[in-house]
Amino acid sequence: MTKVTPFLMFNDQLEAAMAFYAATFPDSEIRNVARTGQDGPVTSAEFVVGGQVFMGYNGGPYFSFSEGFSLFVDCEDQAEVDRYWDKLVAAGATPTQCGWITDPFGVTWQIVPRRFMELIRDPDPAKVKAVMAAMMTMVKLDVAALERAYAEA
Predict the structure, then answer these.
(1) 97-100: long-range contacts at Cβ-Cβ below 8 A with a sequence spacing of 24 or more?
(2) 147-151: long-range contacts at Cβ-Cβ below 8 A with a sequence spacing of 24 or more?
């Protein structure tokens, strides 16, 4: 385990969330699960999503997630953006804006193509502004549209 590990407090969906994350993101696994009794519900667990270790706990309805905390997914290309986006939507996630989507467990994800990050690092502020303006109109990020905005600036 690393020195600092994100700790997620779920209502009562930790087991389902871990199974979904492990099936959706490569380099993911479920570790060290604690249950209430031998066949009881999961109370806490250590799990890995995309190589990042997390701790999780079923803390009840007192705890909830907000967009103040999100998970950033670095996507190689549009195909990878589409793949994760489609899996999240199929699972019941709610798209919001600018590549953000909240999964059915309440966790918010940023599904971001690497090309977007490259474009906004350009030294030309007019190009960066055009890419940012285009991104602000999107729900799921579209690499081709971002590149068009960049080229036209």
Answers:
(1) 97/136, 97/138, 97/139, 98/135, 98/136, 98/138, 98/139, 98/141, 99/135, 99/138, 99/139, 99/140, 99/141, 100/67, 100/70
(2) 147/115, 147/119, 150/119, 150/122
Superfamily covering domain 1-61: 2,3-Dihydroxybiphenyl 1,2-Dioxygenase, domain 1 (3.10.180.10)
* Residue closest to 31 by CA, chosen among 51, 55, 5: 55
* pLDDT single digits (tens) 36-45: 988 888 999 9
pLDDT of 69-115, one tens digit each? 999 999 999 999 999 999 999 999 999 999 999 999 999 999 999 99
Q: Enter the pTM of the model.
A: 0.93
